[in-house]
Amino acid sequence: MIRIPRWPALALAAGTALACGDIAEPLRDDLYEWRITVGSGPTADTVHYHWARGDLPVRVWVEDVGELPAWMQRAIDTWESVYLYREFQALLVSDSSTADVIVRGAPAPAKAQLGVTRLRSMAPECFGATDLDVSDDLTELRLPMRIYISPVEGNIPGLDRCLGLTSIHELGHALGIFAHSPNPTDIMYTDPEVEALSRLDRETAEALYHLPPTITAVRPQ
Known about the structure:
It is a single chain. The protein has helices at residues 68-80, 159-175, 199-208; strands spanning 36-38, 45-47, 58-62, 90-93, 101-104, 116-123, 126-134, 140-151, 216-218. With 221 residues, it is an alpha/beta fold. β7 (126-134) and β8 (140-151) form a beta hairpin.
């Protein structure tokens, strides 16, 4: 049974700036904070998003670099397994111009575009980042989302494992877990160490799909 969180007040997880408005009520102990604060000063607020039924399956284009397409398919299968009623579905596509999510096997650009919130992760052997482009008035999420996954320099033992867990982690951001878990036992921890979803990962992913989003996805015209 899916349980909906209750919302008394607390601060967001570490690394996210606090402001006024609807920001940061604490969650039950079987969830972690998945929302992020976007903006600064009096206009800052928490942002929450999940894909609508009409947007499914989410179209994911993956750069054909090494085993990255296979890792992303595994990540899709992993997250889809969470949802009993298929609340999240994704599909690899061959045309990047039609994609809702673009995945590149390269380092993220040194500087995110103005207005883009970058969610970074790093394991010892590889790096990951997901860019979210949220409008200034905090009503729109401009698609496509962009994911970057790349190894550190050199042939390092454990690289395949790292790329696999980082693919799952970054797709977790793309499905709506915008914040990082504070728990090293969760795959959505900032520096992921585990290869599979924890109970907290699963219950957080379930809960966020049963609350109304605060922003709407908008595709390029």
